[in-house]
Amino acid sequence: MERLMGKVAIVTGGATGIGEAICKKFAREGAQVVVAGMPEDPVQEVVQEILEAGGRAIAFSGDVADADDAMRCVRIAVEEFGKLDILINNAGVFPDMKELQQYDIEVFDNMIRNNVRSAFMMSRMALPELHKTRGCIVSAGSEAGQLGIAQNTPYGGTKGFIHAFSKGLAVEQAQHGVRVNCVCPGAIDTAWTHKEDGPFDSEVEKMVINATPMGRRGTPEEMANVYLFLASDEASYVTGALYFADGGITVAKGSVGQKAHDSMKEAPKGELDLRHSRQGATEIRWPGGARDRERL
Predict the structure, then answer these.
(1) Burial class (CB in 10 A: 0-12, 13-18, 19+), 217
(2) Sheet of 86-89: strands edge to edge?
(3) pLDDT score of 152
(4) Quick one: where's region Disordered (predicted)?
(5) The domain containing residue 111 runs over which residues?
(6) pLDDT attached to residue 190
(7) What's the confidence (pLDDT) of residue 188?
(8) Alpha carbon of 102 to those of 79, 92, 99, 108, 223: distances in Å?
(9) Is 140 helix (H, G, I), strand (E, B) or coil?
(10) What's the total number of domains in the chain?
(11) Catalytic residue flag (residue 237)
(12) CATH number where 69 lies
């Protein structure tokens, strides 16, 4: 439980879904964590839960796609904990599923801001501090960035950007001692993949699970375990990697999930107390309203 002892991490999108699991996993492993999220996210609740479990964490509420807020997030980490070792670019939205001819332009613009600009802005602002600590960046890709995703082609495009961005940044930043990698989840048990909470309908929900060789969604904690490895010194020779933690969906064809062994269909219980997995950004988010939209 000390794989990140003495490390300082910022986790964007850190209050819900996979982000909550990353924050709690990192704190459990000894990291001091900045839980970063939008004002409507349960940031303070996650921080309090980490503190109650014996970890160290502080809250940051703001829009990390904004240059000033991104810089403020980095400064808060350094002022509170003295340095920055790890940046997790997990912020993002998944607001709708429609064929492209029907896709709302505002949804597209918002997705570019939250999925692409946030990772660019946080990486840009964090790198001077990461140079000092020979730190690392781990960003959230997706199997959709590899395969594309019908009925939400712009989402797959944003994740394709993150894949290429991470690989290029890994080469560029090696001269400064900074590693850069990308975690590429499949369907995970969060609000995004449940018809009751997000844009999936029952047909898409069933199709995604059937297309996964392991025959189930992944858990947020399973994703946090991959982030933990890539952020730790155990991954000292890993940079520029796309880690597909997707239950095998990127290598499968057809409805293979029905054939999965029962042991694969059963999700592990995990160790973390996750209370916000089914919350998350399944809607358009303009923190400053029209003013922020005009700044794109």
Answers:
(1) buried
(2) 56-61, 32-37, 8-12, 86-89, 136-140, 179-185, 242-245
(3) 84
(4) 277-296
(5) 8-188+220-252
(6) 79
(7) 86
(8) 46, 22, 6, 11, 32
(9) strand
(10) 1
(11) no
(12) 3.40.50.720
